Amino acid sequence: MLALSRRVAAPLLAAARRPTAAPQPLRSLAKKAEAKGAAKGASAGPSATGPLPVGTINGLNILKAGPEIVVGPDSEYPEWVWTLHKPLPTLDQLQVMYQANPETMSEEDKKRMIRQWNRKRIKDSNALKAKK
Prior knowledge:
By secondary structure, the protein is mainly alpha-helical.
């Protein structure tokens, strides 16, 4: 019995004693952008009001081994991209617009108003049920 256990244990112990490489991390962050000549306290990125410079921008890549992000001229992007930063109207604002003149509202705004109203109604109903 002792000989059998030594025969079984010997390869396991030998494998455990072998030096192994350090475990590789599963995932790491993308490369950090290098700030060349940036003054302390100065903004590292371009301003939100002006156009972005055309070309490669370092530091925007989220993939470890992926290529750097290339920014094209503003004319290559669709017009709706430049409206993404604008906030959408709230339910109260949509209801005021609807009460003033429903014909002037776009179909998109009407659908958004109905979705927002329905969401609010469901939340109020759930809050009442939770109090009971």
